[in-house]
Amino acid sequence: MQDIDSALYDIGRIREQLAASTRFQGFAPWIVALTGLLALGLAGWQASVGDDDLVAWVLLAAISATMIGSEAIVRARKLHRSMADRLLNTTLQRFLPSAVAGAVIALAILLRLPEQARLLPGLWLLFMGVGIYAALGNLPRQMAWAATFYMAAGAICLALGTSGDVATAWLMGAPFGAGQLLVATILHLASSERSHD
User: Fold this and answer.
1) CB-CB neighbours of 51 under 10 Å
2) For residue 169, what are the CA distances in angstroms to 39, 60, 62, 73?
3) Apex 150 CA angle, 142 and 195, nearest 5
């Protein structure tokens, strides 16, 4: 009986290692692109009406995460079959800490330091970049470009956010929208490469 338990344990470890090094194919480029277009649309609308309310961005983030997550589950089960749950968990475990940190900081700033809310777009972009870097083991290697873009955009938005010269809507919407379109392009190109292999 110990031999069977040992063999099952070894198989489980092999599957975990495989999941840690396998490219996750669950992200749909068109859904990611749609979230970028929604961000650009929200930024344009907020700028036209003079609204700098970040609550709309929190709602858009929740909607975007739900859209991307739902599609990722469906695609992963179709493309990865028996490895789907393991790959979903591995990718989520790598990205989730930065997402949670971004949510905690947003909550703290919005509830306790609302006068510093203009820093949130830059901070959120930095956390997005960190999350992508953390999940690179399961993403196309070109995704490092997107992570770098988010980090650079976050630094620029932090500098601009303190000056007050740029509307918060554009600080959030322009880099996030452009970043999501970049991610969608990378995902599309990576899926095209796989289909030509």
Assistant:
1) 13
2) 9, 12, 17, 31
3) 25
Q: Give yes or no for a contact between 43 and 180, defined as CB atoms under 8 angstroms apart.
A: no
What pLDDT, in 10s, does the model give residues 26-74? 789 999 999 999 999 999 999 999 887 888 998 999 999 999 989 988 8
Q: What are the φ/ψ torsions at residue 141 (nearest 5 degrees)?
A: -60, -25
Rounded CA gap, 122 and 161, in Å? Answer: 8
Q: With contact defined as beta carbons under 8 Å apart, do 158 and 150 qualify?
A: no
pTM: 0.83
Q: Which of 192, 132, 188, 125 is nearest to 161 (CA)?
A: 125
Q: Which DSSP letter does residue 140 get?
A: -
Tokens 């010269």 map to which residue? Answer: 165
How many domains are there within the chain?
Answer: 1
Q: Which domain holds residue 70?
A: 2-196
Tell me 50's DSSP state: T
